[in-house]
Amino acid sequence: MLKWALVFFVISLIAGFFGFTGVASGAAAIAKILFYIAVALFLLFLVLGVFAVKSIK
After folding, report:
1. What is the span of the domain harbouring residue 8?
2. Could you tell me the sign of the dihedral formed by the alpha carbons of 35, 36, 39, 41, in that order?
3. Do 27 and 8 touch, CB atoms closer than 8 A?
4. CA count, 13 A, side-chain hemisphere, 53
5. So where does this one cross the membrane?
6. What is the torsion angle, in degrees rounded to the nearest 10, for the CA atoms of residue 28, residue 30, residue 33 and residue 38?
7. How many structural domains comprise the chain?
8. What distance, in Å, lies between the first and last C-alpha atoms of the chain?
9. pLDDT digit string, tens, across residues 1-57
């Protein structure tokens, strides 16, 4: 998912460079949403992993 966020970020930079501000803002918004989803999933799995290790001990 972070890969797609990076792809949309690069698309946003390139579109902004060439003057396509609508495309740039749309791609940046998608990249931001995907990044926050990836961070939320990472934190969720981190917490689940900590609880799993504690339950095994």
Report:
1. 2-56
2. negative
3. yes
4. 5
5. 4-24, 33-53
6. -100
7. 1
8. 32
9. 889 999 999 999 999 999 999 999 999 999 999 999 999 999 999 999 999 988 887
